[in-house]
Amino acid sequence: MTPSKYFTRRELLSILELVEDSRTCTTLEEARALVMRAAELLSADYSVCAVADLSKICEADAASVVNGGYPEEWLDIYFKERMYRFDPVVRYHQRYSLSRTWSEINKHFDDGEAGKLIKSARDFGLNYGISSSILSPESGKMSLFCFASEKDNFQPHHKRILDTIALHLNIALNSAVCDTSSFALTLEQRESTLL
């Protein structure tokens, strides 16, 4: 975990509250509230997260999505046109889990399809972003967390925050959307991982 010397008292309190609430999250509404709180902590205007089956990631309906304020029209276009197939953020996080700004990620994907997606996203105010993922090879799933803003608010400090909370958001998201018998941790397992 990142040393607390990097966070303000307010940030530390928000992080600890988010961690605690992630332990008891079981519904989509609770997961959505946590993602929106994380967005506020990260100075983001929009947030969305998803759990996807890695073996079906380029298929329709392969992901369960929790929208924390992304424009609905954008999400409709994104999924209808299957933009996730060439989304630089999805492509990057299929391989790497650490938090990255979208500017950093976009440097790795300068193909035409990625460029079209980035331009389309900007039409909806999704100009800048930060994202992270958790890969779970044993279940074959990936959780992806995206936070966006019209302004370039995202600094290395925000990456530290997201790296600190991503695992806990993952626990909450999976408890809310996945079959608990095969994926989500029991309360006792969660407590032992946090100690």
How much beta, percentage-wise?
15-25%
Which strand order does the major sheet show? 2-1-5-4-3
Question: What's the overall geometry?
Answer: globular
Low-confidence stretches: 180-195
The residue fraction in helices comes out at 40-55%
- Elements, N to C (H/E): HHEEHHEHHEEHH
Q: What does the main sheet amount to?
A: 5 strands, antiparallel
Supply Rg: 16 Å
Describe this structure in words.
The protein is an alpha+beta fold. It contains 8 helices and 5 strands; from the N terminus they run ααββααβααββαα. Strands 2-1-5-4-3 form a 5-stranded antiparallel sheet. It is globular. About 35% of the residues are buried.
In short:
With 195 residues, this protein is of the alpha+beta class. It contains eight helices and five strands; from the N terminus they run H-H-E-E-H-H-E-H-H-E-E-H-H. A hairpin with a 4-residue loop joins strand 4 and strand 5 (141-149).
Q: What's the arrangement of secondary structure elements?
A:
Blueprint: H1 9-23, H2 28-41, E1 46-53, E2 63-67, H3 72-80, H4 88-93, E3 100-101, H5 102-106, H6 112-122, E4 128-136, E5 141-149, H7 156-177, H8 187-194
List keywords for this structure.
195 residues; alpha+beta
